Amino acid sequence: MLKITDLHAGIEDKEILKGINLEVNAGEVHAIMGPNGSGKSTLSAVIAGKEEFEVTKGSVELNGEDLDEVSPEERAHKGVFLSFQYPVEIPGVSVTNFIKTAINESRKARGLEEMPANKMLKLIREKSELLDIDRRFLSRSLNEGFSGGEKKRNEIFQMAMLEPKLAILDETDSGLDIDALRIVANGVNKLKSKDNAVIVITHYQRLLEYIVPDFVHVLHNGKIVKSGGKELALELEEKGYDWLKNEAVV
Amino acid sequence: MAFESNVDIEHPVHDLRTEAMKNFELKGFPSKKEEAWKYTSLNSLQKIDFSIFPKEENALEYKEVKKYFLHEIDSYKIVFIDGIYSSYLSETTHDGVDICLMSSALTKPMYRPVIDVYFNKIASKDESLTTLNTAFSREGAYIYIPKNKMPKKPVEIIHFSTGNEASLLLQPRNLIIAEENAELQVIERHQSLTSNEVLTNSVTEIFAADNAIVDYYKIQNDAENASLIDNTYIDQKSKSAVSVHTFSFGGKLTRNNLNFYQNGQHVDSTMKGVTILGNKQHVDHHTLVHHIEPNCESHQDYKGIYGENATGVFNGKIIVDKIAQKTNAFQQNNNLLVSDKATINTKPQLEIFADDVKCSHGCTIGQLDEDALFYLQSRGIPKKEARALLMYAFANNVLASVRIPEVKARINKLIAKKLGVNLGFDL
């Protein structure tokens, strides 16, 4: 599904990603771990198409198509979803109206009619129940005055509504207490299928107890320095990142 | 000038008019040399040969103009067509409150005690455009809400111009009085129905007695050749709360002179504005809050979005007198420039003579937030729509204090339309 080859990318002459190789297939869950400043969030933003970052070498392919010239909205229409670490507040636009707009724009891009209102409402009800979201929450302005946990839950709600092929969860666990973490992880697990893939970006092993990865990659200084199975996450938890840093130097 | 033939010299306010005329002749139209008019030129308007009094009465069918009314709810209506009162489109009342015509208030003896106390008492005697209005105005809205009363519904004051005159100068004059503990909501709109030139030089005096509440909404979404100079003067007594929301989306040149005088303690004054301009449109907001007594508050929040060759001015003056201790004055002006050629001049002016006050002010001029744009795009919303949605959110923020839901909905729709937000959501 996603194939990243020798990806170099940066911002204003500063190279942040220095040769990433990663392949993610349908049905898989990948975790990308690493210390602060290793390039985790940059990687997720580059996959989602943030124009601020420049790809200087290598490629990101989605189902065989090079995404280099593809805008963020077109990537979304092709099934890429990024759950933001810091979701943006949009006063005056309710959660419901926002998600309706997003869904219908994607449908329009695919040459489909707008989703009928009754179908939309049913879908909203189903997905909000999945994430234990109060109905009143849906009429509030998007992310405005939301707690950290509400923002993250709202991100996963949007993911549930948009049903992406490739979901990237950027530090979704930060700012969540254990109950919220469990609800969010539970939601993600229910959305998982053999047809879609999830990339979980996290600093800590905690989230991976709930969303169990098939593969774990360690990012350090813009490169994947180690890959392994889920046991690698436990090892990192125990030993920290320093031993890998040393290994990378060697 | 040969206006005397059209002016009733027996009129009780004739002396005021004569004096105002003298003052206007002395000063003339304001020029860019004056600090308060530095960024707004009236030159192009002065070249036009305006008709001062319309030659004939014009009629309109309700269905032609229904969309300009707040037709979703019931309201009292004071409607003028080319400056002349339209009884056909209006709904006035004398049932416990007076919601009627300035001309009858000025001529009928029963109103004389009120006129003597309030008429031209807070309006400036030397500001030239106000004096011009005092000299020539004949018509407008007269609203008197006695102690403890509240009209059953909001009042709409609407001025239509039909374009039957090639160019028309209108000088409406409103007098609004809310006595002790009274409450009132007013929506004012000026609407030109053609592309002919119209210049409106309006003066409104609002008096809010102790504990009175007045909410005033100005919808400025006029046609391309319509210009408006709005001079509003507000006198507030103790514990009164007055809010003025100004929505400037249309017109050629708009100048708002909004003046609050706090003549009592624990007064609350609110000024909010949303300005969205394109083409070569120009809007100038000049606000003044004069804190004369202690323990009062003022809140100003103006948002502006300027595209194409539009120009905007915000000049917010706050005066805190020496005795006005414990004043809390807040002023905010945020602007988005969405084209390289658009201009905004923003200037806070604080004159504070008391030492125990809280005054905060801030103005920003910026572009749209790239991170927010990326967030919306990553959800599949195309860049153009995403930009419009962010501008909508920026402007919409001011509407929280609008207390009439239908006004809020209407303004939301006007904002969405003006910004080209067509995202299909129910506003």
From TrEMBL, chain A:
It comes from Euzebyella marina. This is Fe-S cluster assembly ATPase SufC. Belongs to the ABC transporter superfamily. Ycf16 family. PANTHER family: ABC TRANSPORTER I FAMILY MEMBER 6, CHLOROPLASTIC. Residues 2-246 form the ABC transporter domain. GO terms for molecular function: ATP binding; ATP hydrolysis activity. SMART domains: AAA. Pfam families: ABC_tran. The keyword Mitochondrion does not apply. Keywords: ATP-binding, Nucleotide-binding.
